[in-house]
Amino acid sequence: MRNKILCISILVIALLMAVGSVQAAPPQREKQNVYGITPWTGKEYGGTFAPKGVDKIHLLAGENNVLNTLETEVYFWPITNEYMANWFESKVVIDGRLQILQDGKEIKVLERQPYVHVYPQGFYGGVSKLVVGDEAEKKYQEYQQAIDDYWKAISDYREAYAAYEQQMAEILKEVTETGKTYAEEELPKAPEQPEPPTLYVTGVTEAFIVNLPVGEYAIRTIDADGNTVEGTDKKLSVFEKRRSGVGYQIIPESKWTRPVQSDDATQILYLEGTRTMYLKAFHEAEYNQHDFLRMTSLEKPLAGKGAESAYMWVHEEEVPDTKVQVLQAGEVVMEVPTKPYYVKQTPGYALGYDIVEFDAESDEFLGRKPSFEAVKLELGPGSYQIRVVDATGQVLKGSVRDIRSVNVVPMWQLYLLSLVPLIFGLVVVLRRRNLRLKAAKPVTA
Amino acid sequence: MSKMKYRRNAIGVIARRDIKSTVNGIGIYVAASLAFLVAMLFVRSNLKGVTENGLMVMVNPLNYPLFIAVIIGATYLALTSTISVARERDQGTLEVLFYGPVDSTTYITAKFVEQIVTFLGLIVVYIAVFFIISKMTNFGMDGSFLAMAGLSVLLAASIVAFGLLLSTVSRSARTSVIVLLVLLLAFLAIDIVAGILNSMSAKDMSATLIYARVAVDMLNRGLKWISPFAYLNRGIAAVGLGVASQILSSIGASLLYTVVLLALAVQFLDRRGVRK
Amino acid sequence: MIQTEGLTKKFDGLTAVDNLNVHVEKGEIYGFLGPNGAGKTTTIMMLLGMERPTQGTIKLFGKDLAQSYFEIKRRVGVLSEFQFLYEDMTAKEYLRFFADLYEVENPDRKIDEVLSRIDLLDRQHELLSGYSKGMKQKLGMARVLLHDPDLLILDEPQSSLDPYGIKEIRDIIMEENSKGKTLFISSHILSEIERTCHRVGIIHHGKLLAEDDMTHLKQQVTSEMEIAVELEAYNDAIGGDLKEQEFVNSVTHEGNKLTIKTDVGEDHRAEISRIISSNGGVVLSMVAKEISLEEAFVIITEKNLSLLTKEGQAS
Question: What interface predicted TM-score (ipTM) does this complex get?
Answer without folding.
Answer: 0.88
